[in-house]
From TrEMBL:
The keyword Protease applies. Its EC number is 3.4.21.105. It is found in: Membrane. It comes from Sinanodonta woodiana. This is rhomboid protease. It is a multi-pass membrane protein. The keyword Glycoprotein does not apply. It comes from the Eukaryota. GO terms for molecular function: serine-type endopeptidase activity. PANTHER family: PROTEIN RHOMBOID-RELATED (PTHR45840:SF2), RHOMBOID-RELATED PROTEIN (PTHR45840). Keywords: Hydrolase, Membrane, Protease, Serine protease, Transmembrane, Transmembrane helix.
């Protein structure tokens, strides 16, 4: 489960330090001249707890800045590259000595990395699934896996259970079939009045390849994402992809059946990959691994398209539209959720933009099914 975080905590802490140095900004212009900044950096009482990297950045600013000023916002941005779990304690104490002593203690604590398998796993997840160094450090410090992630394990268990049941019921199973067309869960265009099919089709899979890929991505991508962002947010992205997949199929592939969790899986995958690509310079995911994920996803979509048009059977084909519509849901709802670690989504402009786009699409698709189909 993700951990609670006050998004303004860093800023408040840094402002509490900067406020005690207000005399350096003699003209109240919200900026420091570089000579004044050099004097500030020479103050051992204030900068005793600042790490070497930040000092190097500030020194570089002193050398390269033209004009010879550093804005207060730029100062805040440089300082906020460091995250400490003591920020709340420091903010609650107005005494500068207390702030500095707490920061020193945490600096020493942050350099001591636990060697347990759990802590190594948490660090690895933080570096691969979060894009900001501050968020990573905070997640590493606070994550306890209590309560544990539940959505992805439960949904995976249920989907595998349905697959085993249909294998036993139909007596055989192949790489891409057979499809249990008489199931009450499968999406069928001639049974659209049974609205639960627009969601519950995700429990049915057409063959081993279909099941294997979806379960692989759910576990390797969905489970770590749930550990970072929490069950509620990941379930929201997943179900948004599932619903977009069935509604998209009802419009763009009107006569096809639909099975599988590909809509939800691709919503998670597309949102995560888009977040990686937008923040690639900050992510610890090698180009080979990224290329491998894209290759596997492309192969799955290619196989679904081939299967859609190559089969010559009296049974309607299985649509691949859910892959594409799920990815679109991931690029809207999913990307906004995964970019905003522990932020209040209702305060994010992009969240309302993405939500409006997604809900507009849902309304259009529902009206299409009611009045046009």
């Amino acid at each position: 489960m993700a951990v609670a975080r006050n998004p303004d905590l860093d800023r408040i802490y840094l402002q509490s330090i900067a406020a005690q140095q207000a005399d350096y900004d003699l003209h109240s212009q919200g900026q420091l001249t570089l000579p004044t900044l050099r004097d500030l950096m020479a103050d051992p009482e204030l900068w005793g707890s600042v790490d070497n990297h930040m000092m190097e950045v500030l020194e570089m600013k002193c050398i390269t800045n033209i004009p010879q000023v550093l804005s207060y916002q730029e100062f805040i941005n440089i300082m906020s590259n460091r995250r400490s779990p003591s920020f709340r304690l420091a903010v609650e104490s107005p005494d500068k000595a207390t702030i500095l002593s707490v920061s020193n203690c945490i600096c020493q604590r942050d350099t001591q990395h636990s060697s347990s398998c759990f802590d190594k796993m948490v660090r690895k997840i933080a570096r691969k699934y979060l894009t900001d160094d501050i968020d990573r450090q905070y997640y590493e410090d606070q994550y306890t896996c209590c309560p544990p992630p539940l959505f992805v394990p439960i949904i995976t268990f249920v989907e595998v259970g349905f697959f085993i049941y249909h294998c036993l019921d139909m007596g055989r199973i192949t790489l891409n079939g057979p499809v249990p067309v008489n199931s009450v869960f499968i999406y069928r265009p001639d049974r659209r009045i049974e609205v639960w099919r627009f969601i519950l089709y995700m429990f049915i899979h057409a063959g081993w390849i279909h099941l294997f890929f979806n379960m692989l991505i759910q576990i390797l991508v969905g489970l770590p994402l749930e550990m970072v962002h929490g069950s509620c947010r990941i379930a929201t992205v997943y179900m948004a992809g599932v619903l977009a997949g069935s509604l998209g199929t009802s419009i763009f592939d009107m006569h096809a059946y639909l099975v599988g969790a590909s809509g939800g899986v691709y919503a998670l995958l597309a949102g995560h990959l888009a977040n990686i690509l937008l923040n690639y310079s900050h992510m610890q995911l090698g180009i080979v691994k990224l290329a491998a994920v894209l290759l596997i996803a492309s192969s799955d979509v290619g196989f679904a398209i081939w299967d859609r048009y190559s089969k010559k059977t009296p049974v309607p084909p299985i649509s691949y539209t859910a892959h594409l519509m799920g990815a679109l849901a991931g690029l809207t709802i999913g990307l906004v959720v995964l970019k905003n670690f522990e932020q209040k989504l209702h305060e994010q402009y992009m969240w309302w933009t993405a939500l409006t786009f997604y809900l507009g699409w849902l309304v259009f698709a529902i009206l299409w099914n009611i009045f046009y189909y």
